[in-house]
Amino acid sequence: MKKSRRLIELQRYINTKKEFTAQEIADEFNISVRTAHRDMLELSDLGVYYDTKQGNNGGYKLLSTKLLPPVNLTENEAFAVFFASHSLTFYSSLPFEIDLKSVLRKLYFNLPEDSQKTVDSLKTKLFLKNKKRNISNNHLKDLLKYSGTKNVFEMYYDTLSGVKKYKVVFICLYSENGFWYVPSLDLKENKIKHYRVDRVENITSTNQEYENIDGLVEKSFDFNSFDEPTRLYVKLNKIGIRACQDNPYTNENIKIENNGETGFIDELIDKKDIEFFSDFFIKLSRNAVVIEPMEMKKYIYEKAKEIQDLYGEY
Question: The whole model's pTM is what?
Answer without folding.
Answer: 0.70
